[in-house]
Amino acid sequence: MAFKPLHDRVLVRRVESDEKTKGGLIIPDSAKEKPAEGEIIAVGEGARKDSGELIAPGVKAGDRVLFGKWSGTEVTVDGEDLLIMKESDILGIIA
After folding, report:
1. CA-CA distance, 1 to 77, in Å (whole number)?
2. Is the pLDDT of residue 65 over 60?
3. Overall pTM surpassing 0.85 (yes/no)
4. Shortest CA distance to 66 belongs to which of 47, 85, 48, 80?
């Protein structure tokens, strides 16, 4: 991939949710919400303090994360729909 986020931004691929409920009902595309779970594809070098010192990011490529429902900006990279967001928009890493 030829895209590298700047500063404290990350590039995320959404992870698609199941098309069935636990009870076995099939959810149509029109009723699905966009998933708030994704996989980190690329990470910037990190934010900088006022002193210029670099703050290393807390996530790395390959991490599965949860993020806010309205987080990020949708972008298309190499024909794939991805999200770019600040690291602070990430709620947590899924272990």
Report:
1. 8
2. yes
3. no
4. 85
With residues binned 3-state (H G I as helix, E B as strand, rest as coil), the percentages for the chain, rounded to 5, are 5, 40, 50
Tell me the two tokens of residue 40. 């980190």
Round to whole Å and give the CA distance between 46 and 86: 10
35-63: per-residue pLDDT in tens? 688 999 999 999 888 998 999 999 999 99
Residues linked to residue 85 through DSSP beta bridges, in sequence order: 10
- 83 membership: H or E segment, kind and range: strand 80-86
What is d(CA 38, CA 45) in angstroms, rounded to the nearest whole number? Answer: 20
Closest CA to 60 of 79, 77, 80, 46: 46
2/65 Cα distance (integer angstroms): 22
From CA 74, how far away is CA 83, in angstroms rounded? 5
